[in-house]
Amino acid sequence: MKSEIAAVVSFLKRLVKLKNKVEVEKMDLFAERLTVGLQEKFEGHWVPEKPSKGQAYRCIRVNAFHKYDPELLRACRESGVHYGDLGLPWEITLWVDPGEVCGR
Questions:
Q1: Helices of type H across the chain
Q2: Are 83 and 17 a contacting pair, CB within 8 Å?
Q3: Collapsing DSSP states into helix, strand and coil, what is residue 65?
Q4: How many whole angstroms separate alpha carbon 33 and alpha carbon 39?
Q5: Whole-model pTM above 0.85?
Q6: Do residues 97 and 55 touch, judged by C-beta distance below 8 A?
Q7: 3-state helix, strand, coil in the chain (%, to 5)
Q8: What is the mean predicted confidence (pLDDT) over 43-57?
Q9: What pLDDT digit, counting tens, does each position of 64-101 carry?
Q10: Main-chain phi, psi angles of 92, to 5 degrees
Q11: Is 50 helix (H, G, I), strand (E, B) or coil?
């Protein structure tokens, strides 16, 4: 689980850096808080033998119906980052599964 979470956090961190609106120190704290939050959320919902089990629960999603992902919002609050400064695309979906991280 740790390597998959590290991969999705690293991807998001690189994506946010493209907009250059978040200070490096705050971005590092955001990444740390997001990592901890995802580990806590996924605990008990991680079945390596059945990677698709719990897939929807482990999804990070932002779109017209879900303007704020709860884990991203939590990490923003805990790190002092304004959610809008993340500069995320208006639609992004990331699946964090045992052995695989993918996005759309």
A1: 2-19, 24-42, 70-79
A2: no
A3: coil
A4: 10
A5: yes
A6: yes
A7: 50, 15, 40
A8: 91
A9: 999 999 999 999 999 999 999 999 999 999 999 999 99
A10: -155, 140
A11: coil
